[in-house]
Design brief:
By secondary structure, the chain is mainly beta. The chain has one helix and six strands. Bound molecules: zinc ion (ZN).
Length: 97
């Protein structure tokens, strides 16, 4: 069985219906150096950890939302709408870094 993603609007659906938007990262402050904006925009850290990620449900409701996933096991732990309180958005769980 393929990975199932729990969309907050549509409930559990196959991963093929979604677009992965990358891990949640802290946005640079306005006026930050160009290098910081380039890193924020293009660098995708490949952590082995529990992390919050952006996902887009392109196959149904066409909404962006957040998924908490353990990248070591590919287990999805939670999903919430943007703006909901999430704990440890940038550094949750263990990491091998
Ligand atoms: Zn949906």
């Amino acid at each position: 069985m393929s990975l199932m993603i729990p969309c907050p609007h549509c409930e559990r659906r196959p991963v093929g219906e979604f677009h992965f938007g990358g891990p949640v990262q802290e946005r640079p402050q306005p006026g930050a150096a160009t290098d910081q904006w380039i890193a924020y925009t293009y660098d995708q850290p490949n952590r082995r950890a529990v992390q919050w990620e952006w996902w887009f449900h392109r196959g149904a409701c066409r909404q962006w939302f957040l998924v908490q996933r353990d990248t070591r096991t590919n287990q999805v732990l939670d999903s919430v709408l943007p703006g909901a309180a999430i704990v440890g958005a940038s550094e949750s769980g263990a990491s091998d870094e």
